[in-house]
Design brief:
This protein has one domain: Metal-dependent hydrolases (TIM Barrel, Alpha-Beta Barrel), CATH 3.20.20. It is of the alpha/beta class. It has an eight-stranded parallel sheet. It is globular and about 45 Å long. It is built from nine helices and eight strands. The chain has helices spanning 36-43, 64-73, 89-97, 115-129, 146-150, 167-175, 192-202, 225-234, 236-251, and strands at 9-14, 48-54, 77-81, 100-106, 132-136, 155-157, 179-182, 207-209. Helix 8 (225-234) packs across helix 9 (236-251).
Length: 255
C-alpha cells in the first residue's frame, strides 16, 4: 500500500498582522502581532501552498500592509481588502494590480446600515477589477436581503454564516451561486459537520476552506484537526475541492 499523497491547501482566509503598519482599535481591541513569517511557520507544515490575506476590522482601509506582504509571498497569494465607498476606480484597479481579488464588508459587529451602499460598491469593484464581495455577517441577519445579495456578480460568506439560525439563509444564497468559507470553526454557533454536509450537497463548488489564523477573538483558535474534520465529513473528493479547486476558481489563481 502506498502512502496517501500529502494535502495541498489554499488558505482562503488568513490574517497578517504587522504592527509596522496602521491598526485601528475595534471595540477597544487591538490584536497581537502575527507577521508573515509567523503565519508561514504555522501554515506550511499543514500543506498550505497559497492563500488569501484578508483585511480585518482592525486594519480598516489601510492598504500598505498588503502592498508589503503580497509581493513577498509571491505567486499563489492574493488579498481581500476593505475600501471606502468613495474609493476611486483608479485605486481599485491599482490594488487589483498588486493581487487584491475581493472587497470585504464586516457586518458581524454592527447592523446593515446601507445595503444600497454595499451593493453599489461591490458592483463597482467587480466592474472595475473583477472583484467578488465577501461578507462577515450572521447569515440570519441577511434574510431580508437575500434577493439583492444573490444578484451580486459573486458573493462569499465568511465562517459558515456564523449561526445555526443563519443556515437556511446561507443555503438560499448558495442556491444562487454564493460561495461559503469553511473557516472559523471556533467562532461559530452551529453543528459544523452538518453545515458542511448541507452546503456541499447543495453545491459541491461552494465551500472554500481557510484556517482563519491567527483566529483573533475566536473562542477557540484554529487547530490542524479542523482540516481533518473537513475531510472526514466531506470525503476525499469533496474535501479536495474545498481545499484547492474551489478557492482557486473563486480567487482566480492559476494552479
Amino acid at each position: 500500500m502506498t502512502d496517501r499523497a500529502p494535502r495541498r491547501l489554499f488558505d482562503s482566509h488568513c490574517h497578517i498582522i504587522d504592527h509596522r503598519f496602521p491598526l485601528v482599535a475595534n471595540q477597544g481591541f487591538l490584536p497581537e502581532p502575527f507577521p508573515a513569517e509567523a503565519y508561514l511557520a504555522a501554515a506550511r507544515p499543514l500543506g498550505v501552498a497559497g492563500g488569501a490575506i484578508v483585511s480585518g476590522s482592525f486594519q480598516a482601509n489601510d492598504q500598505t500592509y498588503l502592498e508589503d506582504v503580497l509581493p513577498r509571498l509571491g505567486k499563489g497569494w492574493v488579498g481581500v481588502t476593505q475600501v471606502a465607498a468613495d474609493c476611486p476606480d483608479a485605486e481599485i484597479a491599482r490594488l487589483a494590480g498588486i493581487g487584491v481579488r475581493a472587497v470585504r464588508f464586516n457586518m458581524f459587529r454592527g447592523r446593515i446600515d446601507s445595503l444600497d451602499a454595499l451593493v453599489a460598491l461591490a458592483t463597482r469593484c467587480h466592474a472595475v477589477a473583477g472583484w467578488h464581495a465577501e461578507l462577515y455577517a450572521d447569515a440570519a441577519a441577511l434574510a431580508p436581503h437575500v434577493g439583492r445579495l444573490a444578484a451580486l456578480p459573486q458573493l462569499a460568506i465568511d465562517h459558515l454564516g456564523m449561526t445555526e439560525a443563519g443556515l437556511p439563509v446561507l443555503l438560499d444564497l448558495v442556491a444562487a451561486g454564493c460561495k461559503v468559507k469553511a473557516t472559523g470553526f471556533g467562532r461559530v454557533q452551529m453543528d459544523v459537520p452538518k453545515a458542511l454536509e448541507r452546503i456541499a450537497r447543495a453545491d459541491p463548488g461552494a465551500l472554500v476552506f481557510g484556517t482563519d489564523m491567527p483566529s483573533t477573538r475566536a473562542k477557540r483558535p484554529f487547530e490542524p484537526a479542523d482540516i481533518d474534520l473537513v475531510e472526514g465529513t466531506l470525503g476525499a473528493d469533496l474535501a479536495r475541492r474545498a481545499f484547492w479547486d474551489n478557492p482557486l476558481a473563486l480567487y482566480r489563481v492559476a494552479s
